[in-house]
Specification:
The protein is built from 19 helices and 9 strands.
Length: about 500
């Protein structure tokens, strides 16, 4: 059941709004005021088509062909050819929710009235979003410099009735989907093709989806860590507010406050009377707090990006100006997505160390590898190997893409951000972290059973334990572990995110 639609105006779209639209929880509507801006900009662009001057992308070629004039009778054909020639992405298809998010973002930025598109083009794009007509978009081929040109072109050709889309549960030609919905393809006019593909929206879409999933992931990992702390009988002296007030970094203080709240009514902490806990327990606020700061910074940058004009050239009817600039360059997006991968990867490393503590009897006081009959049973031994492998993969994926570049279009476009590479790496990092978290949750629940401390758990942890046990039973003898790990991961995603999103499935 759809809620009231999200009204797009190019100014106020939030990251959470975008996430809901990507998951089809809401529909879009177009601001009347924004459409008036679009009309005024379109009228100004059309007034330039008969003039003697050259305007990039309006009556010239593209890239290194910027100085090549295009005759008036070929202006419409120029835009259609642009979409067709730039639909050159290859490889595995992007998830449908990521494509929906990119469509919403492109629609939102065009509503700023700086691109020169016709209102009818935006109305059709909104219809595709609301009727769940999702273009097939391959994931490889963007440099994040003139934006995500190839991927956005695959979205753009769907408006022409070309290319393939997903619609009503199957893949089909775009024209067929439009006809089934009673819609007609657009007839592009001057500058419209360029306006549809010049921007950062695919990279930003993936980044925004990863951001929301990461915010929920941090919450989940902190609650799972709390279950581990109780299963190990660890002290919580390190959570004393005196410690964190002495280093008042906001993210660290928030994490410590949250852990104190979750553990406040537990009767299981402090049983072992260790003088000090290992870093993987004692330093959770410092490491998670750093990730929280990274998430806060990423949210600030992406919130600005999703409401920015990233076309080229930009049109300013009020000043009578058409200006070629560089807002399509996705360096701010690439940098922040690389940073997020770096900020989140240590959470998995910390979780892997806690998994090791749960499985090691000299630390936990529990049977080796949490097997009721160690030796005959290997228990959860190899789940630790899996977690360690994923931690290593995340470390490799944390190498930044934004420090790389490429030179294309005859040297005219001589610096690239590689933002879509950053986004795709981040999605994989986040997906791996949900698996690592699931393995720790599985081990912590098993340890709680073997240690007999379930009745001593705090309220929130007892709820989490019961939730885990509702999908995975106590492992009394060796079994194939991939299934329990996968079920636990899906259950945690459903609990903290609300569903298993396509981009993480």
């Amino acid at each position: 059941m759809f809620e009231l639609p999200v009204t797009l105006d190019g100014e106020k779209l939030g990251v959470d709004d975008l996430y809901r639209l990507a998951q089809r929880e809401e529909k879009v509507s177009l601001s009347a005021l924004a459409l008036e801006r679009v009309k005024a900009c379109r009228s100004y662009v059309l007034s330039l088509t008969g003039g003697p001057g050259r305007v990039y992308g309006l009556n010239t070629g593209f890239g290194s062909l910027a100085d090549t004039p295009v005759s008036p009778e070929n202006l419409d054909r120029l835009q259609i050819n642009l979409l067709r020639s730039h639909s050159a992405a290859v490889g595995k298809e992007l998830p449908k929710d990521a494509v929906r998010a990119a469509m919403v973002l492109r629609l939102n930025t065009l509503l700023k009235g700086r691109s020169g598109v016709a209102p009818e083009t935006l109305v059709l794009l909104s219809e595709l979003i609301n009727r769940d007509i999702v273009p097939v978009v391959p994931e490889s081929g963007s440099l994040g410099a003139s934006g995500d040109l190839a991927q956005l072109a695959h979205i753009g050709v769907a408006l022409l009735g070309e290319g393939e889309v997903y619609h009503r549960g199957s893949k089909k030609p775009s024209l067929q989907a439009l006809e089934e919905e009673g819609l007609k393809p657009v007839s592009l006019g001057p500058k419209e093709g360029l306006a549809l593909i010049n921007g950062t929206q695919v990279s930003t879409a993936l980044g925004a989806l990863a951001l929301v999933a990461s915010q929920k992931l941090v919450e989940c990992m902190e609650e799972v860590a709390s279950l581990t702390i109780q299963s190990l009988g660890s002290s919580v002296q390190w959570l004393d507010p005196l410690v964190h007030d002495a280093r008042p970094i906001e993210g660290q203080v928030e994490c410590a406050d949250r852990l104190r709240t979750v553990l406040s009514d537990s009767r299981s902490t402090g049983r072992t009377r260790r003088v000090q806990e290992p870093y993987c327990i004692r330093c959770i606020p410092q490491v998670h707090g750093s990730a929280r700061e990274g998430l806060r910074f990423a949210n600030a940058i992406l919130s600005k990006e999703i409401n920015s004009a990233t076309d080229n050239p930009l049109v300013f009817p009020e000043q009578g100006a058409v200006i070629s600039g560089g807002n399509f360059h996705a360096q701010p997006v690439a940098l922040v997505l690389d940073m997020l991968a770096i900020a989140l990867t240590p959470l998995g490393a910390l979780s892997e160390r806690r998994i090791d503590k749960l499985l090691t009897p000299t630390f936990s006081g529990l049977p080796a590898y949490l097997a009721p009959q160690s030796g005959v049973n290997s228990g959860l031994m190899i789940s630790h190997y899996t977690a360690s492998s994923l931690v290593t993969e995340n470390r490799l994926l944390s190498h930044p893409a934004s420090v790389d570049t490429a030179v294309v279009s005859g040297g005219q476009e001589d610096h690239a951000s590689m933002s879509l590479h950053s986004a795709r790496k981040l999605i994989k990092v986040v997906s791996n972290l949900w698996y690592i978290c699931a393995i720790e949750a599985l081990c912590a629940a098993q340890a709680a059973d073997l240690g007999g401390i379930v009745p001593l758990l705090g309220t929130r942890s007892a709820e989490l334990y019961s939730y885990i046990r509702s999908c995975v039973a106590f492992i009394s003898e060796d079994t194939e572990l991939s299934g329990p790990i996968e079920r636990t991961r899906r259950a945690l995603l459903e609990r903290y995110v609300g569903r298993v999103p396509e981009f993480l499935s």
